[in-house]
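User: Hi! I'm working on a homework problem where we have to compare a predicted structure to a textbook description. Could you give me the structure for the chain below?
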Amino acid sequence: MMNEKELETAKKRAMYLLGGKDYSRKELTEKLLKNYSREAAEAAVSQMVEYGYLDDSRYAKKLARQYIEVRRYGKSRAKMMMIQKGLGPQLVDEALEQYSAEDLIGEIVTIIEKKYYDRLFIEGLEGRKEMQKVMAALARRGYGYEDIKTAVSAVRDRAELFDDE
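Assistant: Happy to help. Predicted structure tokens:
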């Protein structure tokens, strides 16, 4: 049974936690459950939502930007990580739909040019092995095979244009 004092301390703890960083509804509830009853934790979280301090939709958009634009992850890895944070799949898809295939290919091109550019132009068997390593590294970041191939072609085409001049 929850008492008023427990609810008040749970609310204060929730506000303190939200002052430091954003949380999903699920994350904040789990954090509060370490010290408070389920009733108090859920009531405190509901009040944080009511006050506008906790908004899963806003948090999903913020995480999508962080994972796609800042950390340069592909959609699949970003989606997986966002779901691990306690966001629902539909909410995650809505947050990620703002990023088009062209945006992602642009990100892949940037990564290739910064990190893997010299590996794209090695000849023979050694070159194929290096290309497989580059493609595997990009796939681990969550990019799709077709997007990676398109980005690699774009980087190679751009390099050929400069070689021809």
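For your comparison, note the following. The two ends are 78 Å apart (CA to CA). Residues 57-96 form one domain. Good luck with the assignment!
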